[in-house]
Design a protein that fits this description.
alpha/beta, Spore Coat Polysaccharide Biosynthesis Protein SpsA, Chain A, globular
């Protein structure tokens, strides 16, 4: 039986009653990293809180980590019932970086879950079954340490046309450098779950490469069967501009290259982009990584 056959699940394989029984006294945290997502973060928090905290207590806490938002993300998430922290204010003695990975790394210092579920804040077409679906393998298979979600991602030309960086960067990168991981349907999915002990042991890129780095490092340290994936159905979110995806792709390539060659790299990469009738634009893309958080965590 292949890895794909052994470790690919559907979100509805487990009932909530079965998951609650398997949860026992384990604590589960939902972490939502957010930057300027006031339009959607309230709906994400409200729906999860009502379904999975107040109705069925599969979650012990919902934590939003606000990554330097300039809109009302903090207030909207607070009003919706989340515990909200500004990333820059968490452990200020450790400094602050920009990026999604930074918010996720900082979440280790303000959450208490033995299991952590990550969910993006910009979801438009989704349902609360995402959370129990991701928890299923962690709660029922002790050998699994990290679970990735996958789904249909609608684009302008059809239901499978979303995920440009996945198709043009991440999937070719895995095929070239990390072939055992090519069975992951959506390696960059923002919806995933992990055992706290594992995530605290990993080096975490501060930007968008956090998901790819976690996959590669988990495979290297715990083996392929420590990773599972779950079909969550359908998911839509706000698509980023093409030029913004260039920086994302640079961060992912840098993390992959560093893990393939074991070489050190700079904290920034100069990315040159072009537009019609304008001079080349060069900007620095941060690619710094945070060290494993485990030695920095205080006893709880």
């Amino acid at each position: 039986m292949s890895w794909f056959e052994r470790n690919t699940h559907r979100w509805d394989e487990w009932s909530l009653a079965d998951l609650l029984a398997a949860k026992g006294d384990q604590r589960v945290s939902l972490v939502v990293p957010a930057r300027n997502e006031a339009a959607t973060v309230g709906d994400v928090v409200t729906r999860v809180r009502e379904a999975l905290v107040e109705t069925v207590a599969i979650l012990d806490e919902i934590v939003v980590v606000d990554s330097d938002s300039t809109d009302d993300t903090y207030a909207v998430a607070t009003d919706a019932g989340a515990v909200v922290h500004r990333a820059a204010e968490i452990r200020p003695d450790l400094g602050t970086r920009q990026g999604k990975g930074e918010a996720m790394w900082k979440s280790l210092f303000v959450t208490r879950g033995d299991l952590i579920v990550f969910m993006d804040a910009d979801l438009l077409d989704w349902d609360t079954h995402f959370v129990p679906g991701l928890l299923g393998p962690l709660l029922t298979r002790p050998e699994v340490s990290l679970v990735k979600g996958f789904y249909e991602r609608p684009g302008a030309d059809g239901p499978f046309e979303g995920g440009r960086v996945t198709e043009l960067v991440a999937r070719p990168l895995l095929a070239l450098l990390f072939p055992p991981l090519t069975g992951l349907v959506q390696p960059l999915a923002g919806e995933w779950a992990v055992r706290r002990s594992l995530f605290a042991s990993l080096s975490v890129p501060s930007g968008y490469a956090v998901e790819l780095a976690a996959l590669v490092d988990t495979w290297r340290t715990e083996g392929l069967d420590a990773i599972a994936q779950v079909d969550l159905g359908r998911r839509a979110h706000r698509h980023q501009a093409l030029r913004d995806l260039g920086a994302m792709a640079t961060q992912i390539l840098t993390a992959g290259w560093a893990r393939s060659s074991h070489s050190h790299h700079a904290d920034e990469i100069a990315l040159t982009q072009f537009g019609p009738g304008v001079a080349p634009h060069v900007h620095a893309v941060p690619v710094v990584e945070r060290p494993p958080a485990a030695p920095l965590l205080v006893a709880r």
